[in-house]
Amino acid sequence: MKRGDWVLLVVVVVVILLLLLFIVNLDRLFPTPAAQQLLP
Amino acid sequence: MIELARLHFIANALAAFERVRAHAWLVLASVLLDVGFFFSLGFFTTPIKDKLLEQVIVIGSLLSQQAKETGRALGNSGLLQQLFQPEIKPYTINVLLLFLSMVVVTYVVYVIFQGSAWAAARNIASKKTVLRTYLLGFARVNLLWGILYLVYLVLDLIASLRHRIIELVVKTTVPDLLGTGLFIAAVIVGLIALLSYPQLSIRNAFRSVLDVKRIIPMYALLAVIYLVLDFLLTQLLQWSFEFTILIGAIIVLPVMAWARVYIIEHTSG
């Protein structure tokens, strides 16, 4: 694989990790009264 | 059969089939990318959809609480004004942000997986393609289609609300003509979008559409194959759900890989 391909792979992995981070933090980013009560 | 093969769109379909047969590993990669696409789309958008629904429920309960207190459904102001009053405004903004993030997430997942699948299809069609160059072009071309998709979602939301209100007023079921019209327009734009992928050119896509003698038979053949598969799978579904999913994945995904190669063959030939 060329250097550009590695860069692309890293970018894709980082984007997917950012999406995951966004998904797991949805309750903190967009709190609702019910979700707020559940959070510590 | 020989007479049929002389027809340009049939000849290209057969040529695409031969190319698919000759590149089994790339077809397998294409199938895995499609599986990855559907899985990721569900995995990333379902929590956002759930969150969106949660916010809408909160807005609904706050509005009905207010209606109970004031004794009027929407007070003296309109729905939009109600949605932006201090108590409800944060949830309305959340709904808009979640809606936007769902479009962005769909765009990112689509570009990564479908862009790679189209790059694989170009390689199957013996059009040497560098993945990173193709993905960047795919992301650029899909910006326009993504914006049009966002416009469609907003218009569809307005149309379905309007339809619901009309049904509530006349107290009977009414055909949703505007919604159906919008859906047909979205399908047509989607079919034009597919034509922009072989050469990553929106101008070429519109130029191809004007060549109706070439494009209509191609899409007609794809539609017939889709309808036949849909009919067969629906029949199977009555028998066994798991078996239908299995057969569907074994047949439909390679057909999707073939369809991409066919579109590339037929539009660039």
Structural summary, described in words:
The complex is a heterodimer of chains A (40) and B (269). Chain A is built from 3 helices and no strands. Chain A has 40 residues and is an all-alpha fold. Chain A is rod-shaped and about 50 Å long. Chain B has one domain. Helix content of chain B is 86%, strand content 0%. In chain B, helix 7 (177-196) packs across helix 8 (202-210). Chain B contains 10 helices and no strands. Chain B is mostly helical and 269 residues long. The interface between A and B is medium-sized, with 17 and 19 residues.
End-to-end gap of chain A = 46 Å
State mean pLDDT of chain A (0 to 100 scale).
83
* Count of individual helical segments of chain B: 10
Q: Quick check: average pLDDT of chain B?
A: 89
Based on CA atoms alone, the radius of gyration of chain A comes out at 16 Å
- Considering DSSP H and I runs of 4 or more, what fraction of the residues of chain A is helical? over 70%
How many strands in all of chain B?
Answer: 0
What order do the helices and strands come in, and which of them pair?
The complex is a heterodimer of chains A (40) and B (269).
Chain A: H1 3-24, H2 26-29, H3 33-38
Chain B: H1 2-6, H2 8-22, H3 24-70, H4 79-83, H5 89-124, H6 131-170, H7 177-196, H8 202-210, H9 212-237, H10 241-268
Short description, anyone?
Chain A has 40 residues and is mostly helical. Chain A contains 3 helices and no strands. Chain B has one domain.
